[in-house]
Amino acid sequence: MKTINVGLLGFGTIGTGVAKLLLTNSALIADKVGTPVVLKKIADLDVTTDRGIELSPGLLTTNAMELLDDPEIAVVVELIGGYEPAKSFVLRAIENGKHVVTANKALLALHGEEIYAAAARKGVEVLFEAAVGGGIPVISAIKGNMAANNFGSVFGILNGTCNYILTCMTQEGADFATVLHRAQQLGYAEADPTFDVEGIDTAHKLALLVSLCFGTRVNFADIYTEGISSISAVDIKFARDFGYKIKLLAIGKRDGDLVEARVHPTMIPVSYPLADVDGVFNAIRLTGDFVGPVMLSGRGAGMEPTASAVLGDIIDISRNLMAGINRRCAPLSFLDGSVATLKIKPMGEIESKYYLRFSAVDRPSVLAKISGVLGAHNISIESMVQTARMIGGSVPIVIMTHEAREMDVQKALQEIDTFDIITDQSRYIRIEDNLE
């Protein structure tokens, strides 16, 4: 009986989960594929640490070339992460005619075009279900059941660390630093949480979703990215008072020949299903022209759900190999010659509603001066709250606007912050209350 051999690059948390799942459910996988799918080699710099899994002698190596150059290995799974040596290893695997499965969203967001082109030349697959949303099958949904749709938008809560922090801040009234420290103690946040809390991880995932949904190449540097470190308990309370929750939202929208691609803290109405996605869970909301809105949610990270997604890709490739099919579907769903290069809409041109919070001295003329500047920059006020409660010696003034242009809002805030009546930098959060 033909055997499909798999090589695994990286034996960390996710790699261990993949090995465990492949070994534990080997009979089930063989029944579904029609032949054994065998883990032949694992390459990692650390081959001595006990991962709590029993492996056959000779399975582990510190030399990745033993795996990449083995003609009997048909599928290489890259779980190293980062850019190098992951990129070089993936390209070598492709050059050797091997199919690739990866969870490396950072690698694909920055170097995907080069990798996809190499795969096209060699006629091999590059699958990456685990790169977005962990165990949530969003990529296979876009490429499969929803492939006939023109997508108008994609919204995502794509980082469990940020979602956990914002959830705790909302439920407990705690500040960012306190909850971040707890998340690190629980293992939800890295010792250096920058990629998570500053939105970079989310932007990597959005780059892939935008490419898949809109059939376009994406220059990662063009994605506006803003994290949650400046969000305060004060802002979360005011958001709740107005009927909103704050989420770190990945936003992709098709706007004619332009695409919006941005990541930032966003107020969404508490009545929206996305607002109910709390803790470390992820969710993606897609809108197709025929299927309408579809939301997928689940565990977006961790050993088991991510391993499940990786194995799904391995099984998909294995089924194709059994049927004598190579490269049944291009990595971005669109045929290589059909992938466009749509320009990302400049951030200054996007239009949104805004939450604005000003810290001011308690004087009668304050509101008039602020509203005057906003009006001069074509920003219309929808509602306003000025409390008698002092925060840090200043009175908070909160304004919710109608739709306004980002460029106008930024110019207005810069002008307002020069006033001697303003005691701290003005805060703003964009609002999305029409997720179509």
TrEMBL record:
Family annotation (CDD domains): ACT_HSDH-Hom
Catalysis: reaction(s): L-homoserine + NADP(+) = L-aspartate 4-semialdehyde + NADPH + H(+)
InterPro entries from the UniProt entry: ACT-like_dom_sf, ACT_dom, Asp/hSer_DH_NAD-bd, HDH, HDH_cat, HDH_CS, NAD(P)-bd_dom_sf
Residue span, ACT domain: 355-430
Pathway: Amino-acid biosynthesis; L-threonine biosynthesis; L-threonine from L-aspartate: step 3/5; Amino-acid biosynthesis; L-methionine biosynthesis via de novo pathway; L-homoserine from L-aspartate: step 3/3
Keyword terms, alphabetized: Amino-acid biosynthesis, Methionine biosynthesis, NADP, Oxidoreductase, Threonine biosynthesis
Claim: Signal is one of the keywords in the record: no
Annotated EC: 1.1.1.3
Class of this enzyme: oxidoreductase
UniProt family annotation: Belongs to the homoserine dehydrogenase family.
Name of the protein: Homoserine dehydrogenase
Source organism phylogeny: Bacteria, Pseudomonadati, Thermodesulfobacteriota, Desulfuromonadia, Geobacterales
